[in-house]
Design brief:
Number of strands: 7
CATH architecture: 2-Layer Sandwich
Largest sheet: 7 strands, mixed
Distance between the termini: 32 Å
CATH topology: Thymidylate Synthase, Chain A
Number of domains: 1
Structural class: alpha/beta
Shape: globular
Order of helices and strands: HEEHHHEEEEHEHH
Helix content: 25-40%
Number of helices: 7
């Protein structure tokens, strides 16, 4: 499969544009394509999944990573069944995952702290939490983290989200990272809208900067253009509803 055929698998024009921008500036090596320092933005309401083709994005894997983060258990190895990459992140001496982002978002209350700070001061620049750390990136760690920070702002009554990433594979991991970033976005939006009565709050883009975006030739070889449809229609349609989480899960798991 040629790298340009991936364009035909992407679902939204937002992602088609991002992919074209990536190809315009990326460097091609013997067996992979890479861009050092790549920034883009996604519409969380329309572009929460890259593709409705099961070779690039599946509901099953989306469910798995959502539950993995939600349960925020560093020794939960269920994710290995769905993502080959995670099989290399632990061994007999390293039993805990660093890369379960639910630890930082939920166990350490990263998202709720962002909500509280924005609720108390709409103009704050401090509604952020860190995911990466020196210990995770040390030579002793075999589970290097791909995301560094998650940051929220409110400006002109719009909720803005900024994600700083170390690295992501455009084909194997970025579709699911982006999906979860969109969920976090609406989790924060819903809490601010309902718990802090910010009824004028509006949706804005999620801005992402990655130190490296890349994919390998063998990633492309594993993709086939298929008609199998995994469309997650209207997954975030109830983002203002107090019962948003339950409605979101009903769509995702049915």
């Amino acid at each position: 499969m040629d790298k340009f055929d991936l364009y035909n698998i992407l679902n939204s024009y937002n992602w088609k544009d991002i992919y074209n921008d990536f190809l315009d500036v990326a460097n091609t090596y013997d067996n992979y394509i890479e861009k050092i320092g790549f920034s883009y933005r996604i519409n969380p309401l329309r572009s929460y999944y890259m593709s409705n083709k099961s070779t690039l994005f599946t509901k099953e894997k989306a469910r798995a990573i959502y539950l993995w983060y939600k349960n925020h258990d560093s020794r939960d190895h269920s994710i290995e069944k769905y993502f080959e990459e995670y099989k290399h992140c632990t061994d007999n001496t390293h039993l805990d995952f660093n890369s379960n982002y639910g630890i930082y978002a939920y166990s350490e209350y990263g998202l709720d702290k962002c909500i509280e700070r924005l609720g108390k001061n709409n103009m704050t620049r401090q509604a952020m939490f860190c995911i990466n750390n020196n210990e995770a990136m040390s030579d002793k760690s075999i589970d290097k983290l791909c995301t560094n920070t998650v940051h929220f702002f409110i400006r002109n009554n719009q909720l803005k989200m900024v994600v700083q990433m170390r690295a992501s594979n455009f084909i194997t991991l970025l579709p699911y990272d982006s999906f979860m970033f969109c969920f976090w976005y609406f989790y924060v939006f819903n809490k601010l809208y309902n718990d802090y009565n910010l009824k004028n709050l509006k949706i804005d883009y999620i801005n992402i900067t990655a130190s490296t975006i890349h994919f390998y030739d063998n990633n492309l070889q594993n993709i086939q253009i298929t008609n199998e449809d995994n469309t997650l229609l209207d997954l975030f349609k109830d983002y203002k509803d107090k019962d948003f989480i339950n409605k979101f899960e009903n769509i995702l798991f049915n």
